[in-house]
Amino acid sequence: MYDYRLRLTMPRGVDERVVILDIDEKSLQEVGRWPWPRDTMARIIDKLFDKYQVGVVGFDVVFAESDYSSGIRALDDMAKKELKQVAGFQELYQKLRPGLDNDGLFAKAISGKPVVLGYYLNSEKDAKRIAAIPEPVLPKGTFAGRAVGVTVWEGYGGNIPEILKSASSAGHFNPYVDDDGVIRRVPMIVQLDGAYYESLSLAIVRTLIALQDKQGRAPAVEPGFAPERFVNRNYAGLEWIKVGPVTIPVDDEVTALIPYRGGKGSFPYISLADVAFERVKPEALRGKVAIVGTTAPGLLDLRSTPVGSVYPGVEIHANLVAGMMDRNIKQKPPFMIGAEVVLLVIGGLVLAALVPMLSALWATVAALAGLALIVLFNLGIWSGANMVLPLAGSVLMAGMIYTMNMAYGYFVESRSKRQFTELFGQYVPPELVDEMARDPQKYTMEPKAADLTILFSDVRGFTSISEMLSPEDLKEYINEYLTAMSAIIRHHRGTLDKYIGDAIMAFWGAPVADADHARQGVITAIEMQRECVKLREKFRARGWPEFNIGVGLNSGPVRVGDMGSKVRKAYTAMGDAVNLASRLEGRTKTYGVGILVGEATRELVKDVVYKELDLIRVKGKDTAVRVFEPIGLESEVDKKAQDELKLWHQTLRAYRAQQWDQVEVNLINLQRMNPGCGVYKLFAERVNGFRRTPPPANWDGAWTFEEK
Questions:
Q1: Separation between Cα atoms, residue 405 and residue 370, nearest integer Å
Q2: pLDDT digits (tens, 9 = 90+) for 275-284
Q3: What is the three-class DSSP state of 50?
Q4: What does the alpha-carbon distance between residue 116 and residue 114 come to, in Å, rounded to a whole number?
Q5: CA dist 391 → 237, 375, 466, 701 (Å)
Q6: Considering the entire predicted model, what is its pTM?
Q7: Number of helices (H) and strands (E), helices first, in the chain?
Q8: How would you label 357-380 residue by residue, b for 16+ Cβ within 10 Å and e otherwise?
Q9: Measured in Å, how far apart are the chain's first and last C-alpha atoms?
Q10: Per-residue confidence band for 426, with pLDDT thresholds at 50, 70 and 90
Q11: Are 2 and 388 in contact (CB under 8 A)?
Q12: Which of 78, 220, 222, 521 is deepest in the core (most CB within 10 A)?
């Protein structure tokens, strides 16, 4: 809801006051890979201030390590050892050395100029502390006696002291990542070792204010508290941060909401290479706030935000700087919770009294009108008072009152036990329908979230088979096959979802919950393969072509229920777990196996022996998953198969460690043990490919499939 309101009311357009100096792909091609030599950066700083007369420069990068690219370290060692006694060398080297000290050149370039450095923080246990960070803006004990929820950090990656001392100031560039991975806030003040440090955007604004001060002094950071009568032990009362004439609203974690102007490109982007080679018009930078950052994918500063799933981190700071300059950062004071409660009570009572008195049509009109009023009032507070009033609760309240009223009239009073039986009878075994019919109110066709095990099966090469049979024989062929497979699924309490030609989709765990759903699915798949052996013999006797099937199984959270269009609906399951089960069925052909199960299913069924086949990244998913072939129940697997499994799993570990020689030796032995296994041939081909073209350095052992 917050994101939708933000996107709806964004000013959009381009703010020319803040410019992003982009270390983009063009810059990396023309100047070289990052980090660039500091003497290059020194020349860029000189050009920014001398030629382009920029106002303030901020860095969304760190200078955590010394730059020895000029060879100064080697020359220093030689001056102390091999060339110590060489006549004239020491005097000459001391004259030349300042020009080789890249860090010193950069420090000299930024000295006395309004340059703000950036640094990062981390909260891991035993976090490292690299280089140096500035003095805190607020000392220890500033919030003593107040329950201020400021974020606490343990380590940092700062700038080398020589450069840090020459800069005007420095600030952290850590965003606050919400639980859904989206960045909506940035901590204005953070805590480290009991003291308090400012953000990069706040440091830039303070430096900008100092430029406008006659004495050139940056304003102090002043915490702003609510009146004492509103403060208690559960509420610290910190509601804003003040720096000079600028007041920044903060929440209980001392974070500020980012006032996004629009999508990527809401501020001018100038390639840093164009600055380095003086290809920029002076008026594009004169008097501007310039923030140096990167959009190059390889430098890993792309974030997920409400306005874009891939958004440059540097533009987050630009939005905050512009928001502080305009004084338009949204505020979310604690009393908004009380305002939401009042709105919920008043709106809820009105709708609860009105909707049941009306017909279905007018109840719908009343609910929509009430919802519209709630949304308009909320947007008025958002835009007019610049405050964030929670909206989701009010929308859910209106929707729930309407839904409950409609559900009572339709489900409780209209549906009979006979209708219930007709609805579910086509999907689940008769014994499950009887069980459900004893308490029909407990079950519904409405979509819900549930943990299920999903099965997909498919006849391999069915197109060729169908071309070999007459229409009458083909009908008998597919009917006999589907009947046999469906009987096994129903025998194990499975819900038969649909036939897709020769393919079958089924699941366990809905509509009747089954704690043993994963085991039921795995045993069903194994029995389906055994039944296929019998069917092949039967079909062969009738002169019909033989067949093989592939079965994919996966477990996980899905949405299950009656879904579809106004024209036709079906009781089915949807979600990532369903998609992965389908992908696994398709991959059985790749590995030459009859059954593939996902890792989630394998973890739920412990009494079955599995053969881990691979770590794969299927089409449509970024996360790699381990896939397994169920061999059989533990009591059914003999020692020979167990020995083969042990050697294979050793081979798989060596494969992921890129120990190609060991993998090839093991694969030779495995092929002797089981010549018909296609997996061993497949991995032998992969190893040959990797020897020619090694995987990247960050390879995680996963094989990516581009096709379904």
A1: 15
A2: 999 999 999 9
A3: helix
A4: 7
A5: 24, 7, 57, 45
A6: 0.57
A7: 24, 28
A8: eeeeeebeebbeebbeebbeebee
A9: 34
A10: low
A11: yes
A12: 521
Amino acid sitting at position 598: G
- Element holding 542 (H helix, E strand): none
Say if residue 282 is preceded by a cis peptide, omega within 30 of 0.
no
Asked if 458 and 503 touch (Cβ cutoff 8 Å), the reply is yes
- Residue 625: helix, strand or coil by DSSP? strand
Who's near 155: CB < 8 A, 6+ residues apart?
Answer: 121, 122, 123, 124, 127, 128, 129, 130
Report the b/e string of 177-201 with b at 16+ CB within 10 A.
eeeeebbbbbbbbbbbeeebbbbbb
DSSP E strand stretches across 158-301 = 169-172, 176-177, 183-187, 189-192, 195-198, 221-225, 238-243, 246-249, 255-257, 269-271, 289-293
| 582 to 488, 500, 548, 625: CA distances (angstroms) | 19, 12, 17, 14
Write out pLDDT tens, residues 494-543: 999 899 989 999 999 988 889 999 999 999 999 999 999 999 999 999 99
Amino acid letter at 345?
Answer: V
∠ at Cα 74 (68, 80), nearest 5°?
A: 130
- CA torsion, points 403, 409, 413, 415, in degrees to nearest 10? -60
Nearby residues of 285 by Cβ (< 8 Å), 6 or more positions away? 19, 48, 52, 53, 54, 270, 275
| Preceding peptide of 98 cis, ω within 30° | no
Tell me which residue of 309, 307, 300, 209 sits closest to 267, measured CA to CA.
307
φ/ψ bin of 592: left (φ > 0), alpha (ψ from -120 to 50), beta (otherwise): left
Q: Which residue has the tokens 């930078």?
A: 285
Distance of alpha carbon 666 from alpha carbon 657, whole angstroms: 14
